[in-house]
Structures are given as C-alpha cells and as structure tokens.
Amino acid sequence: MPLDPLPELMVEPIVRAALLEDLGRAGDITTDAVVPPGHESRLVLAARQPGVVAGLDCARLAFRLLDGAVRFTPRVTDGAAVEPGTVLAQVEGSSRALLTGERTGLNLACRLSGIATATAGLVAAIAGHKAQIVCTRKTTPGLRSLEKYAVRAGGGANHRFGLDDAVLIKDNHVAIAGSVREAMSRVRARAGHMVKVEVEVDTLAQLEELLTIGADAVLLDNMTPETLTEAVRMVGGRMLTEASGRVNRDTAPAIAAAGVDLISVGWLTHSAPILDIGLDWVG
C-alpha cells in the first residue's frame, strides 16, 4: 500500500517545539557569529549506512520554519531503501537557517529512519507468513504520531494510538476485576458498540476461559512458538491472535510460523537504533 504522508498540521508543531528547545533563550550564537547575514549554501542529506528512510518532511520543516525561502528538494521518498552515500535530499538557501536547523532536522530524520529500518528488518524476517508486524504505545512522549508513521514507512502496521482507540484488558485489569469474565462484563456494560475489545492472556487455561466469553482479539503474551501454535489452533479463527514478548529478527520467524495474525513489538519505537544520516556542505 502507498505510504500517505502525515498532514503538515500534525508535524509542524512537533518540529517547531524541537527548534525552540534548541534555540533556547538567545538563538544560535555560534552560527550568528560565524556566518554573515545573506550568505547562502547548498547542502545534501546523505545516508551513512543502509536502511529505510522516514522523516524527510520533518527535516524540510526544520529548515523552512527558520527561513521560508529555503529550497528543500527530496531525492527519495519516505519508505525507500537506501545504501551508504545515497543523497536523500538537497537543501539550498540561507546558510544561517541551514546550520541552525541542522541538528533538529537530523535528530528527527535519523530517529524515524531508524524505526523504519528496524521495522523493515522484522517484516523481511517473517516474509511468507500471514502475520503483520505492529508497534505499541511504547513511544517517545510527544512523538507518537511520527514514530507510528515511521513503522508504516518500514512496512509495519499500527496497534492502538492511545487509550481511547480500543479496549485492551491486561493482567492488572484482570487482577483488580477478579477474573477475565468480570473484567469483560464491566467493559461490555460501558464501552460503545463500535469499540473493539482485546484481552491479554498468559496461559492456555486463560485462553480457554476467554473462548467461552468471546472477544475481538487475544494478546498471547510471552508464549513459546509451540504454545502459540496450540493457542492459534484453539482459537480457530474466532478472533484475531496477537503475539508479543521477546520478538527480534531471530525469534520472529518461529513466532510467525505459529500462525498468529499480528506480532507486536515495543522496542521498535522505544529503543530502535537511529539510522546515521549526515548533512554535507557542497557549495
């Protein structure tokens, strides 16, 4: 499916806040001292390592919010696989704007491209299976919409965006309610008819109880591939099956082979390494 860009209305406030954080109370005192007003430069964003690109709009805005006359020309699109040395975009205009916006633009582009790259690696690891790689709410505060976009750029899909998207009954909810049945009863009495309900289970016994109640999806937490296979057999297509826990490129193929529909991965958005991208002066 084509990757739809985020509306600028969503991205601009995040980039603006990041610039304001960096500018502090006196602006870029280094650049303002070294670079004369009116000086112009041409620079390129270039990949330093192989990966998948995301966040070019963030980089563009980091420069254009400082000077609307800056010309930002992308050479690739978000979601593209690149090699070391690939030019991602050319930037021309006020040298002061380009140097002042450099770190903010690179911080966001490197972060989002790292997430897209890690996602693409997991997607490739489970190729041939029906399972989808999905992210979670384990995101950087304030960056959730961007980080979830980066997951899509890497070929993954999104789980909940927030607590109001859908119901997810987890172990602590069950502990407080006393049982899965009681937790589900309380949810059914309160949630609207359009709200999907997912329940987390840790054992096949809990899954067996859930199957007598029914839900839209079940989160099979920290189960071995063998147990996941049995869980998928027990569910028999009556609800979506989601596996989570200890997922990486080595373990993902066996998890996917168990037949689950979704594999959720928290580290994609909380600790994926960045993709190294540089901003190089060319004239």
Question: Which characteristics define this entry?
Answer:
transferase; nicotinate-nucleotide diphosphorylase (carboxylating) activity; Aldehyde Oxidoreductase, domain 3; pyridine nucleotide biosynthesis; 6-stranded parallel sheet; 283 residues; Aldolase_TIM; elongated; Probable nicotinate-nucleotide pyrophosphorylase [carboxylating]; alpha/beta; 19% strand; 43% helix; 4-stranded antiparallel sheet; 2 domains; 12 strands; TIM Barrel
Look at the helices and sheets and give the structural class. Answer: alpha/beta
Strand order of the largest sheet: 6-11-10-9-8-7
CATH superfamily of the largest domain: Aldolase class I
Q: Give me the count of strands.
A: 12
Q: Which residues sit in consecutive blocks of at least 5 with pLDDT less than 50? A: none
Please, how many helices? 11
Strand content: 15-25%
The CATH top-level class label of the largest domain? Alpha Beta
Average pLDDT taken over every residue: 97
| CATH fold type of the largest domain | TIM Barrel
How would you describe the overall organization of this protein?
- This protein has 283 residues and is of the alpha/beta class.
- The radius of gyration is 23 Å and the shape is elongated.
- β9, α9 and β10 (240-244) form a beta-alpha-beta unit.
- The protein has eleven helices and twelve strands.
- It folds into two domains: 8-118 and 272-281, Aldehyde Oxidoreductase, domain 3, CATH 3.90.1170; 124-270, TIM Barrel (Alpha-Beta Barrel).
- 43% of the residues lie in helices and 19% in strands.
- A six-stranded parallel β-sheet has the order 6-11-10-9-8-7. A four-stranded antiparallel β-sheet has the order 3-5-1-12, with helices on one face.
- α1 (8-23) packs across α3 (56-64).
